[in-house]
Amino acid sequence: MPLTPDPQARPRPLVLLHGIGQSPIAWQEFVSAFGVGRAMHAPWMRGLKPSDAVGFDLDAAALDVANQLELQGMRQVDLLGVSVGGNVALRLAVERPELVGRLVLAGALVRPTKAQLRMQKLALRIVPERKLVDAGVSRPRMLAVFDALRTLDETSRLAQVQAPALVVAGSGDRLGRASAEVLARGLPNARFETIAGGGSMLNDSSPQELAALAHTFLDAPLPVE
After folding, report:
1. Which of 3, 108, 130, 152 is the least crowded, having the fewest Cβ atoms under 10 Å away?
2. If you write DSSP's letter for every residue of 62-131 in order, what string do you get?
């Protein structure tokens, strides 16, 4: 989804960070539902691109996204991330706060349990190979992401996030809802929303509903202090 950024333009560009088992094309329905009026950019994240070596590092992925944005002249953006894309967005909000305006987080993990990771790995294992190939993703590369998240603990970082955040979960994602509630409580300036019938990958299961929530949140004026 190419764009020609204007650093002085308003509203801010919206950067869409895909989840495990997805490619940037997974945002097509969301983009259609969100509509015009805001430049959008959906980059591959380092460690998930087909040409990358198998292996994933959250800090390296966040740094690569920041570098891509700066190369395109973007001084500040809003971020919407699902699954591990939400964790990359969180890491950027902590490490590069000047780059991040607002956050929409759907499925970001705070301190994943063995049960959470095991269920997600099992879900990925049963996805037909042809579906992964059509999406442009690799099963070994996706499984490597889960291995990299085994020691993830974002608890101490949450209080450092300055950006206003919208945390979203699908009602059909029990473990995801529990993690989202922890995330929303830990962030200094966050609100929590649930999408009825939504699954773990809301850009896939509920793109219209996610777009509506994101549109309302991102376009809302900041409160006057």
Report:
1. 130
2. HHHHHHHHHHTT-S-EEEEEETHHHHHHHHHHHH-GGGEEEEEEES--SS--HHHHHHHHHHHHTS-HHH
By C-alpha distance, which of 164, 162, 156, 224 is closest to 190? Answer: 164
Q: What pTM was computed for the model?
A: 0.88
Residue corresponding to tokens 């949140």: 217
Q: Is the pLDDT of residue 4 over 70?
A: no
Mean pLDDT of 49-62: 89
Query: CB of 64 within 8 A of CB of 92?
Result: no
Domain ranges of the chain: 14-219
Q: What is the pLDDT of residue 222?
A: 63
The rounded distance, in Å, linking the Cα atoms of 84 and 109 is: 7
In terms of Cα–Cα distance, which of 214, 84, 220 is closest to 146? Answer: 84
Side chain identity, residue 208: Q
2/202 Cα distance (integer angstroms): 23
Query: Helix or strand or coil: residue 41?
Result: strand
CA 143 to chain CA mean position, Å:
18
77-123 pLDDT, tens digit each: 999 999 999 999 999 999 999 999 999 999 898 988 877 787 777 77
Q: Which two tokens stand for residue 94?
A: 């902590």
